Structures are given as structure tokens and as C-alpha cells.
Amino acid sequence: QLTKYKIGIFMRMAHPQGGALAPVVSLPLSVAELSDNNDSGGVTVGSVTFSSESMEDLLVGSWPIDLYQWGTGFDAYVLDAVGSDVVGPVKFNIMMDETY
After folding, report:
1. Phi and psi for 87 in degrees, rounded to 5?
2. Which of 7, 24, 26, 71 has the most beta carbons within 10 angstroms of its beta carbon?
3. Which positions ≥6 away from 12 have C-beta within 8 Å?
4. Following CA atoms 27, 66, 74, 34 in sequence, which dihedral angle do they give, to the nearest 10 degrees?
5. Which of 100 and 24 is assigned the larger pLDDT?
6. Structure pTM?
7. Which residues are CB-contacts of 54 (< 8 A; sequence separation ≥ 6)?
8. Is the peptide bond before 23 cis (omega within 30 degrees of 0)?
9. Measured between alpha carbons, how far is 15 from 21 in angstroms, rounded to an integer?
10. How many CB atoms lie within 10 A of CB 78?
């Protein structure tokens, strides 16, 4: 049931650990744009996108992420209802203002 799925952002290499580790921030998948590219009716192939506007009201955690506390490298996962990873990680970095 996709209504209980969410996008979870973790410190690089932290992994959701079957739902035992809470993400730094998360966003319900129901507010993300979901593209189903599978003709069988199930969502087994597709993409998930979200914007800063969709995050404002439903984000769980603190945004922007405190880079001094969490570092600059992150992994994003699609998580199921118990917090286990379904898809991921997608790796990304956030640059600090002082970097360049």
C-alpha cells in the first residue's frame, strides 16, 4: 500500500536497517509525484520526484538539514510502511556555502 510509503534521507552509508534506523528527514510518498511505467498495474518501475514546495508542510525532521550535524553526503531511499528500504540508495551531496 503506497499511501504508507515515504522517501527517507539518511547519512551516507547508514542504510535503513529494516526500519530500525530513522531517516534524518522523510517525506510521505503520497505527496511526491509518482510515475508508473509498468503496464501490469503494479509500481515496479518508475520514478519519484518531489519539490521544496511539496516538502514544506509534510516533512518529518528539520529542513534544511544541519550539515555540521549530519555531514554533506546522503542516501535517499523509498521506504515501506515499517521503514525498510524498497528502492535505493540514490546518493547525493549537499555543498556547504563556504565550500566554493
Report:
1. -140, 140
2. 7
3. 71, 73, 74, 75, 91
4. 20
5. 24
6. 0.76
7. 27, 31, 32
8. no
9. 8
10. 20
Q: How far is CA 39 from CA 7, 32, 36, 43, 46, in A?
A: 24, 21, 8, 9, 11
The burial of 55, by beta-carbon neighbours within 10 Å (0-12 exposed, 13-18 middle, 19 or more buried), is given as middle
Q: Which three cell numbers stand for residue 86?
A: 524498497
Over the stretch 27-54, which tens digit does the pLDDT of each residue have?
887 655 555 544 444 555 667 766 666 6
Give the helix/strand (H/E) hosting 67: helix 67-70
C-alpha cell at 93: 551531496
DSSP-derived letter for residue 36 is E
Grid coordinates representing 75?
A: 542516501
